[in-house]
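seq:
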Amino acid sequence: MIKKKISWIGLLTAVSLFGLMLTGCGSSPAADSKEIKIGGNFELTGGVANYGKQTMNGVQLAFKEANAAGGVLGKKLVLVTADNKSEPSEATNAITKLITQDKVSLVMGPVASSNVLATLQVGQDNKIPVLTATGTNTKITVDNGKVRPYAFRSCFIDPFQGTVMANFATKTLKAKTAVIFTDNSSDYSKGLAESFEAQLVKNGGTIVGKEAFLQKDQDFKSTLTKIKVMNADTIFIPAYYEEVGKIAKQARELGINTPLIGTDGFDD
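struct:
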């Protein structure tokens, strides 16, 4: 439900941006056209395909309703999609195609932070805005203190999520110790791990262990056996549903009854 709401907010933001862009287009081909072509760089296959499909479905429905109401500035919204296969390199290829071949005016997506980060330079170089409704890594919009002028988001950021979960761990679960189990192949996961640790320590808690895995791993029992011995009050897993589902199942099979907590990557 949260992601669906965010997608709608992202759409409204995109429409506002289009209004500004078209106002300054003058007699350009985009301004003369009866259509506004919007790119959709989504994870339609691969590890987080459920996110990409859900986001695309929401955008398509919103476009259908907007067009039925007269479109935007009297123009029809047309969604042109590309599958980034849940991979950063493919996300770069997808945005390149959407901009250079399909001639879109704006690109929505990707969903996952690592995939979004992989597209930003292409958008910047071509002066095409990239709008993500779900990318939470802080570097998407601000990198090394500099605002990215063609990157936009409509959701919370990782430090917020990590802080909320650390507060939940210490104040609601009354946890004094925690283990962090991070996806080392994900910018999203690493950012969340940092903010969670900082807040947990600030709250008086202790990180008694840090372990890692990679996306597409299937067997987590060896690492989970090590984590079990640490006997922490909670295990923080900042990762996506595909791996988290397997981790949770295998943890329970090993007799780990410790609360497993995470962020919006669990949200499927």
